[in-house]
Amino acid sequence: MVKKNQTLGEFIIENQEAFKYSSGELSRLINSIRLAAKVVNHEVNKAGLVDITGAVGETNVQGEEQQKLDVYANEKFIQTLTNREIVCGIASEEEDDFITICGQKENHQNKYVVLIDPLDGSSNIDVNVSVGTIFSVYRRKTKIGTPVTLEDFLQPGNAQVAAGYIVYGTSTMLVYTTGHGVNGFTLNPAIGTYYLSHPNMKFPEKGNIYSINEGNYLQFPQGVKDYLKYCQAEEGDRPYTSRYIGSLVSDIHRNILKGGIYIYPSTSKNPKGKLRLLYECNPMAYLVEQAGGKASDGYQRIMDIKPSSLHERVPFFAGTTSMVEDAEKFMEKYK
Ligand code: P6P
C-alpha cells in the first residue's frame, strides 16, 4: 500500500523485511547513496555558477576527458560508501581498478560490493542538460574476512541485490529496485528530503519512442538500420517518434514513464557498443526488467552475460518489451 508523501527513509524502514538479506545493511547502503546524491546534486545545480565544469584535462580509463564534476561525484560517492561500514569494495567508471574497503577494524567484514558510474552523461553538464548517477549492488562472493577480489565484481547482472539511478534533471530523483519493483523518490531541495513521487514505476503497455544516436546510422548493424526504417515507415500504424538526450539515465527514465526503446548498438567505431556492462547496462537492465520491460544486447539477456573485465562494453537494447522484441527480430535476421 502506497502512503502519500512517504519519505524515502520511511519507505526503507517499511520495506526492510522485504530485503532477502535484511539485516539493515542494504537499507543503510541505500541511505548512504541518498546522502551522496544530495551532496552531488548541490554541486551539479550550481555548476554553471562556479568554475567547476571545466575539464580538468586528464582523461579517465575510458579515454574520455574528465570534467571536474565527474571527479567530484566519484570522490563523494566513494567517501560516503566507505564511511558507512557496509561495503567491502567499489568499482567506478572513474577508477582504473576496483577499490578495496577493509572497514574500521581492517577485517573485511562488510558484505556488499558497489559498482558505480558517478556522473553519466557528464558532457551535458556544460550545456545544462540533465545528467545522472548509476549504481549496482551485489553481495560479495569471496570469503568474508578476506580482501575483495575481481571475482566479486565480475558477477552477472542476474545476481544484483539492488540497482538504481539518480537523475539530476528539472528535479532530482532517486529511482531504485531491490527486486520488488521500481520506486522513484523526488528530492525536495529546500528540506533535503526525498518523497515517494513515483511508486511502482512500470512501462506503459505500448511504446512509441526510440532513443538512438542516428548520427552513427551508417555504422549500425543492418538489423538496427532495418528496425529504424520499420519505425519510420509510412504504412501501417507507426506512431513512432525519436527522442535522444544523450544522457542514458534521462533517456531510460523518460522511456519507463512514457514507453520507448533505448538502443546503443555496436558501431564500426565501437564494435562492442559504447555502454559499460557492469555499471551502466546491468543496473539499467535490472530496473527496466523490474518495471516490466526487456534488456538485451540485441540477442541475449543483458543480465545473463558473464562479465570478463571491469570496463567491458556491450551493445544495449532496453525498454518496452514489444519494441525490444521487434528490434531483436531484425537483428536475428542477420545473425
Ligand atoms: P553518444 C554518455 O556519455 C553516455 O554514456 C550515455 O549517457 C549516453 O546515452 C551515451 O553515452 C551518448 O553517447 O555517442 O550518442 O554521444
Describe the protein in words.
By secondary structure, the chain is an alpha+beta fold. The chain contains 7 helices and 15 strands. Helix content is 28%, strand content 23%. The strands form 3 sheets. It has an 8-stranded mixed beta sheet, sandwiched between helices. Strands 12-11-13-15-14 form a 5-stranded mixed beta sheet, sandwiched between helices. It has a two-stranded antiparallel sheet with strand order 1-2. The model has no long low-confidence stretch (mean pLDDT 91). The chain binds 6-O-phosphono-alpha-D-fructofuranose. 6-O-phosphono-alpha-D-fructofuranose is lined by residues 120-121, 123, 213, 246-248, 251, 274-275.
Placed side by side, the strands forming the largest sheet appear as 4-3-5-6-7-8-9-10
Q: Any idea what the CATH architecture of the largest domain is?
A: 2-Layer Sandwich
Q: What is the succession of H and E elements?
A: HHEEHEEEEEEEEEHEHEHEEH
**β-strand amount:** 15-25%
What name goes with the CATH superfamily of the largest domain? Answer: Fructose-1,6-Bisphosphatase, subunit A, domain 1
**How many beta-strand runs?**
15
Principal-axis shape equals globular
Distance between the termini: 45 Å
Distinct compounds present: 6-O-phosphono-alpha-D-fructofuranose
User: How would you sum up the major sheet?
Assistant: 8 strands, mixed
> Helix share of residues?
25-40%
Structurally, the number of domains stands at: 2
Low-confidence segments, given as residue ranges, are: none
Radius of gyration: 19 Å
Mean pLDDT: 91
How many H/I helical runs? 7
- Tell me the name of the CATH class of the largest domain: Alpha Beta
